[in-house]
Design brief:
Layout (H helix, E strand, L loop, with lengths): L9 E5 L3 H12 L4 E5 L2 E5 L10 E6 L13 E3 L3 H10 L3 E8 L5 E6 L5 E6 L4
Parallel strand pairs: 1-4, 5-8
Antiparallel strand pairs: 2-3, 3-4, 6-7, 7-8
Helix pairs in contact: 1-2
């Protein structure tokens, strides 16, 4: 059955040290990560609102989850990229690509988190 929604509704970011990753994302993004265990997996849930636009997601530590620069790239919406990159670098992450304009769609940047994942930021032009 066709859907008019955007196709991605969930993401998982692999981690090897949940406490370190939780601390990094909370300090970098100014959010509260909620930890829980689901079977053998440790998860750190980003804040989410049911029925709201955008994808929700979690940090995941467990078998089959390996941090990487390769593979899928998750874009996290932020109001302003530059102060977020400053917080990321201050929390132990590293800027891989500074803020770059992508025309009418705003701006993007890439960073490496404390686990070794390549993750992206997106700033909407109206933000």
């Amino acid at each position: 059955m066709p859907s008019h929604a955007n196709p991605v509704n969930w993401f998982e970011i692999p981690v090897t040290d949940m406490a370190r990753a939780k601390s990094f994302y909370e300090a970098s993004l100014g959010v509260e990560i909620t930890e829980m265990e689901m079977g053998p997996k440790k998860m750190g849930w980003f804040p989410m609102e049911m029925g709201a636009a955008g994808a929700a997601g979690t940090l995941v530590q467990g078998d089959g989850y390996k941090p990487s620069h390769d593979g899928s790239l998750v874009y996290i919406h932020v109001d302003k990229i530059d102060p977020t990159l400053k917080a990321i670098n201050g929390a132990g992450g590293q800027t891989l690509m500074p803020r770059m304009e992508i025309g009418e769609h705003g701006f993007i940047a890439y960073f490496e988190d404390t686990e070794g994942n390549r993750v992206a930021l997106h700033e909407h032009p109206a933000a």
